[in-house]
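Q: How would the structure tokens look for this protein?
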Amino acid sequence: MPLLLYVVLGVWEVGRILDVQVMLDNAAGAGARQAAAGTFTNSQVNTAVTNYLKAAGLNATNASVTVSNVTSPGTDVSASSPNDKLQVTVTIPYSDVRWAVSGFVTNNNTNSDRQGNLLLGGG
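A: Here is the predicted structure in token form.
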């Protein structure tokens, strides 16, 4: 019985990891789409991603969102040129989102991170 309990809790925790990864993918993608629109600043994209995480039910307090223009580093995404590559990276500590209190699969130092990349359309 104890072995079965460990297996069930381990599967449960792995399922939560996958669930959070999908939410982070979606948040990074939503932020990347806003960044590629060319009308939003880095801080507005950051706020949109954070709001997406909150709407998805994640604790976004410790989330780290990085919005960058890979082609022209240091340039705000609202000032990007056509064909610039934009990147949105979202990282959240797994300890903030896991369901199981024990570390069957992860520990308190584990982070989940995802990237959304888009090429700003030429025109």
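The chain has a mean pLDDT of 80.

The beta strands are 64-69, 85-93, 111-119.

Upvote if useful.
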